[in-house]
Amino acid sequence: MAPTTVLIVDDSRLARIVASKLVKQLKPEWELVEAANADDALAHAAQGRVDVALIDFNMPGQDGLALAAQLRETRPELPIAIISANIQDEIIARARAVNATFVAKPVTEEGLSGFLSGAGLRLRKLST
Q1: Coil, strand, or helix at residue 47?
Q2: What is the mean pLDDT of residues 56-67?
Q3: Domains of the chain: total
Q4: pLDDT confidence of 22, banded at 50, 70, 90?
Q5: What is the CATH number of the domain that holds 77?
Q6: Are 112 and 22 in contact (CB under 8 A)?
Q7: How is residue 85 annotated by DSSP?
Q8: Pair 82, 102: CB distance under 8 Å
Q9: Which domain holds residue 21?
Q10: In the predicted model, is pLDDT for residue 50 greater than 80?
């Protein structure tokens, strides 16, 4: 069985590094792919296997919610987390509207572990 691939989308290189380290701590067997913006993310999704997506909300060009909605069109079952320091009810509600989990920045092991565990369970159910 192919390894699970996590797409980390954030315009901040430092934020991608932090998220990557946390994913590696929590799910060391999973592979990571990084994208700096929505266009890069869509290119990765089109050409390769993406099983889970961690998407920053606030990016230049297309924001994370718009990207999540686009990914959702072709991948309705894809576990998606919207990551943002902007913890407003409206953003959280919009994340839920595209069937995404909201994770607050700065991303912590505690904040990410529930999402990754749930994503892993969901992927196992889909593959059986």
Answers
A1: helix
A2: 94
A3: 1
A4: very high
A5: 3.40.50.2300
A6: yes
A7: S
A8: yes
A9: 5-127
A10: yes
- Say which residue the tokens 């290119």 belong to: 43
Distances (CA, A) of 124 to 3, 7, 8, 90: 12, 18, 21, 31
pLDDT at 48: 77
For residue 36, the tally of other CB atoms under 10 A from its CB is 16
- Rounded to whole angstroms, the Cα distance separating 107 from 115 reads 12
The answer to whether residue 124 scores a pLDDT higher than 90 is: no
Distance from C-alpha of 67 to C-alpha of 4, rounded to nearest angstrom: 20
Q: Which residue has the tokens 């869509």?
A: 42
Q: 125 Cβ partners below 8 Å, 6+ apart?
A: none
Whether pLDDT at 8 is above 90: yes
Residue with tokens 């992927």: 123
Residue 15's pLDDT band, with cuts at 50, 70 and 90, is very high
Report the SS3 class of residue 118.
Answer: helix
Tabulate helix, strand, coil % of the chain (nearest 5). 50, 20, 30
Q: What is the pLDDT of residue 49?
A: 82
Radius of gyration of the chain (CA): 13
User: Would you state the structure tokens that stand for residue 37, as one six-digit string?
Assistant: 């913006």
Q: What is the mean pLDDT of the chain?
A: 92
